[in-house]
From TrEMBL:
Any single Pfam family the record assigns to this protein: FAD_binding_2
Record-annotated membrane-spanning stretches: none
Stated name of the protein: Fumarate reductase flavoprotein subunit
UniProt superkingdom: Bacteria
Ranges where the FAD-dependent oxidoreductase 2 FAD-binding domain occurs: 110-515
Disordered as annotated region, ranges: 25-61
Gene name for this UniProt entry: frdA_2
Amino acid sequence: MDQLSFLDKVKTIGEVLTGKDDAVTSASGQTSAGQGSAGKQGSAGKQGAAETAGAARRAAFTPPKVKIPGAKVGRVLDGGVPAGDPATAWQRRRDSYRLVSPLNTKKFTIVVVGTGLAGAGAAAALGELGYNVHAVTYHDAPRRAHSVAAQGGVNAARARKVDGDSLLRFVTDTVKGGDFRAREAEAFRLGEESVRVIDHMNAIGTPFAREYGGTLATRSFGGVQVSRTYYSRGMTGQQLQLSSSQALQRQIKAGRVKMHIRSEMLELIMEDGVARGVVIRDLVTGEISAIPAHAVILATGGYGSVYFQSTLALNSNASAAWRAHKRGAYLAHASFVQFHPTGLPVNSQWQSKTILMSESLRNDGRIWVPKDANDVREPNDIPESERDYYLERKYPAFGNLTPRDIASRAATERINAGHGVGPLKNSVYLDFSDALRAHGKETIKERYGNLFDMYTHATGENPYEVPMRIAPSAHFTMGGLWSDFDQMTSIPGLFVGGESGWAYHGANRLGANSLLSACVDGWFTLPFSVPNYLADHLGEELPGPDSPAVQEAIARVEQRTQRLMSIGGTRGPQQFHRELGEIMYEGCGVGRTEESLTKALGEVRRLQGEFWEDLSVPGGSAQVNQTLEKAGRVADFLELSELMCIDALDREESAGAHFRFEYQDDGEAKRNDAEWAFASAWESHPDGTFTRHMEPLEFTAVPLATRSYS
């Protein structure tokens, strides 16, 4: 490659060459979603009067080779971001969207899979607009979705305090926190809509914490130096979820949303390359049925459960997104996984999950380990001079509120160096003694009382008297289904929202941006972009129950179910999942190397073979069968983990949470912007091979720079 990086070339060519976005085709020749192709399939990609620099980017981009056997370089993608100032890209795009008349909305059917913050918001908003909406969840009720577990808060660029906050500072923090591996324009959308999110969620019932005078209270989270996180004590996700669920229930009662509870999406219905509905299995009766639709929204969360022991609920899974991926939806940044620095440590091999302690605790808690690796004294017996407050030492500007990827790596380094604490020496201390002395127990209890109670119930220890013990734990996936600026995937008619997507967080998500991105997608993006797509499909008939598209999709589900049931092996899916988690933590965890990833890839492929030869699923499929449910999800995890290892091996740089030990600068991630400043969007093929498609990333408002938090 010559001296100019491809980003420099993009800017140079983009100044003299801009044109309307071209269609981007997959390796099979199918027109991808939202890429401006003529005709109805590419309708969501039309930019109207707004032009994009897509042609310039593709002309300038020289992709690095794929060195992994069975994988190859694919096509250059364009995300459909309008050319020009990224700060106004979303407003200009939204203003160009076509509308559907209120007289015609009832003629369209939309399926929303998942009822967390993104799914419930989208279903409620689209129902309010008059569309016929089907909402699908495998939970007993929509409010049981995993968004309810989020604790700390939701960010907003309201800049209501005199602390120097602004929209640009929000964008800078988000782009920098993600180590420049996300779309800059998406960060602007996130910040712009964040103000509406707080106002809207407050209006529909979320009881945000307030100051004495009645104004909304805020606090700080990692990776920022301002106070922009709005919260509901230590249960922000729960309160946001309850508010969204109430809005959804209103639409259910009005007859505009049909709720499918205890139902799991197992297949995507495709007709002429377009998403036309989903196939679901009733988890009580085992009945398999189809829901045809004009558009499908997947808002089913992330895939952190691939690691077995994670902060996610035990039934959290990636099957809906993986089914879509197998049908042609590209998966972006598969290896970008966040390990939360304040999880509770694993204390037993029989432990099935970890427990998350909110990042908000790092506002008042100080993280440390004994300076002497052989120190076995109780924490309160170790004097201040013999404690290593390693985050404050290494990153004085941010201290204990460094971004999560940095805090987790630092904790892992201290633990691996022998300074870990606790029975298994696998944790570090989070100490509130200074805050308790400064503010008093009642103040700390008011701020974190429910979190302290949770810790006591989980460990039997009193954090008011002794430091908490914390450790990095698999938590959030920045990777997800690739989508364009309209949130449409590479399959026309298939949209994505929340953690199922990829675009906002880059290689590392900032704390409190997860609830924000889910609310932005559900309430303020998809209700605009989905109608824009549907505007060209008025009058189209849905595939009937006997149509080839529906029958083929149902047949695939039935055949896969029968295959899982008929193996007749000796090991249950839980055993395979546990072993997979151990492989992934070891080989594709907080830190990776070419050697560890190559080994993990081989072990994952070995485990795949053993799974399909020795799986045991008792009972039948026409009844409640949680082992069958688990088996299907683990089968998907096994395939997904293979792609995660391939993506991590392929990306020869360190960026955010993707930390390759070969690419570092004194323990800090060392990016290679000249070659890797793009999003990898992977396509899986039936023959077991993979294609890496690429979307170049540009940064104008926040120039590319090495992250520094010291």
